[in-house]
Amino acid sequence: MTGGRRYVLLIALIAFVAAIVGVVVGREIVVPERPVENELHDLLHQQLKLDDAQHRQIEQIEKDFALRKHALEAELRADNARLAEAIEAEHGYGPKVAAAVDRSHAAMGQLQKETLEHIFAMRGVLRPDQAARFDEAVVRALTAKDP
């Protein structure tokens, strides 16, 4: 093997190792935190030992909320498109931009309210011991406290 080929292979090997190290570092250090809904979902379905009736009730609550959440998220996407149009038209914070921002905030607020109603509906299915653990998880998620 010639010196030039060895050099190219060495560079390729170094690049490959660097890529692997980058992936490992990215997955271990830079991975975003799990969303609150995933944490609560795991708590409900894995840790609280729900009975069959509780599972059925919570599944229905989740299905109903998923439909409503999807609709609200579509509304938010439409609001963002209107905001983009207003920004493009006004090139500053004018009345169209202000109105689009207000509309978007209203939709965000509605999503937050309905998310809380969803959480309280699921909580209503739980026994007192389960509800206490659920409450701790919700408070921890909202205040970013570690377990």
From TrEMBL:
Pfam families: Metal_resist
Source organism, top-level taxon: Bacteria
Name this protein carries in UniProt: Heavy-metal resistance
Origin organism lineage: Bacteria, Pseudomonadati, Pseudomonadota, Alphaproteobacteria, Sphingomonadales
